[in-house]
Structures are given as C-alpha cells and as structure tokens.
Amino acid sequence: MQAPGYGKLAFDAPAPGSYRLPALGPAADGHVLRSDGSPARLHELMGDRLTVLSFIYTRCPDPNGCPLATHVLKRLRREVSERDALAGKVRFLTLSFDPAWDTPQVMRTYAAQVAPEPQGEAGTPWFFLTSASREALTPILEAYDQTVIESVDEHGASLGSYSHILRVYLIDRRQRLRNIYNVGFLHPDILAADLLTLLSEEKG
C-alpha cells in the first residue's frame, strides 16, 4: 500500500496561518560533504531560508521509505516554484545516512536523476549531502533522533540495507525544528501549508 504522499491528500490541508507550529527545539548543526566533495556545515547550508531536511540512503528498496521522501520533496519543490509567496524562501537538504556507499559522486548522480533542474539561489536549491565518515554522521543522527540500524549477516558483514523510520524535518530561519513528518503525515500539501504558516508568523 502506497503512502499518502504519493497521491492526492484525502482531506483539505489546514488554511495557512490558521494554526501555530510551536518550536520543537534547535535544529542541530554538523559537518557534511556536498555532492562536489567540498565540506560544509548544516547551518551554513540552511542559511536564511526555511529548510526541509530529509535523511535517506540511495539504495533504499522500500517505496514508503526514502523514495517517498524524495518523491514528496520533488512535488513540493514544483509547488514552491509556482507559488509567489514561497518562491526564493525555501531550501531542501537531503543527507545520506550511508556514507560508505553514498559518496559525493553517488549523491551527485542521484541528484541528477531526481532533481535535474537548476540549483540556483533564485529557485529552490536542493542540496544532496553525505558525510566523510560514520563518526561524522552519528552525532547528527542522534541530535535529530533519526534511528538507523544497519542490517548485517551472521558474520556481522553489511547487507547494504538499513532499518530506519522515515522522518522529514521542517526548520525555520532561526534554525529551530517546527515540524517532523512521518510516513503517514508526509505530503506536499501539508508541507506547503506549514511553510506558508511560518511565513505568516514572520509577518506578525
């Protein structure tokens, strides 16, 4: 059964600005690698835009796992570009939790497949990131409470897959978590309403 994020929302998304999204805590910083291999920090990449952050691994075989996150962000990116109120105010970050396989080159290839549109600042940049090592990644996963368990065989060798819970994070311009979406709640219409609600909040 496909997750709601693949189809039309079964109910009307709440009117933007008609509700509040309390801050859930700070959005953690951490050392990452861009898809060109250059180092960066998450806070640097978030910059002064509203940010949607997802954790994935490119070999994920579960359609309601990482592929769902990427699919929803693709739809949301298109919607953001079509709404004047959101254009130029949103940024996407996708960070792999499989740095051994998802090298910068792999992330660059993945980005070319799922988001071939220009990444210019005038649009909606979508950065595909990885880490230099498991040691660099672990503090980030822990700070975001993103559970990831590597599947191994009876000898402890990696099977190339992970058990994980899908989580996508909405982060405001003050780098605070404002919402966390799971598989049953992740939908571009809900995300768009939440983004507009944060912008409405900024206007006072």
Strand content: 15-25%
The total strand number stands at 10
Please tell me the overall pLDDT: 93
What series of H and E elements makes up the topology? EEEHEHEHEHEEEEH
- Let me know the largest β-sheet: 6 strands, mixed
What is the overall number of helices?
5
Unreliable residue stretches: none
Helical fraction: 25-40%
How are the strands ordered across the major sheet? 1-10-9-4-5-6
Secondary structure topology:
Layout: E1 25-26, E2 31-33, E3 39-41, H1 42-46, E4 50-56, H2 66-82, E5 90-96, H3 104-114, E6 126-129, H4 134-143, E7 148-152, E8 158-164, E9 168-171, E10 176-181, H5 188-203
Parallel strand pairs: 4-5, 5-6
Antiparallel strand pairs: 1-10, 2-3, 4-9, 7-8, 9-10
Fold and architecture overview:
It is a single chain. The chain has 204 residues and is of the alpha+beta class. 29% of the residues lie in helices and 24% in strands. It is built from 5 helices and 10 strands, in the order βββαβαβαβαββββα. The strands form 3 sheets. The protein has a 6-stranded mixed beta sheet with strand order 1-10-9-4-5-6. The longest helix has 17 residues, at 66-82. It is globular.
Quick description:
The protein has 204 residues and is of the alpha+beta class. The chain is built from five helices and ten strands; from the N terminus they run E-E-E-H-E-H-E-H-E-H-E-E-E-E-H. The protein is globular and about 55 Å long.
